[in-house]
Amino acid sequence: MEERREPTGGNFNGGFKEFICEEDFYDEEHHHQSNRHQVSMFTMSPGRCHRLAAVSLALLAAVLLIVDIGLGVHYNKLTDSHLTLDDTERISKELINLQDTYKTAVETMKDARKQLDSEMSRQTQTNWELEHQTKRSNDYKNQMEKVTKEIEAMRSRLSMHSDGCKRCPVGWILMNSVCYYFSLKSNEMKTWKESRDFCQLQGGDLIIIDSQDKENSTVNFLINHQDASQLSTDFWIGLSDSKEEGTWKWLDGTFLVQGYWNDGEPNNLNDEDCAAVYPRVNFFKAWNDVRCGVRRKWICEKAPESMS
Question: Known SUPFAM superfamilies for this protein (predicted)?
Answer without folding.
Answer: C-type lectin-like
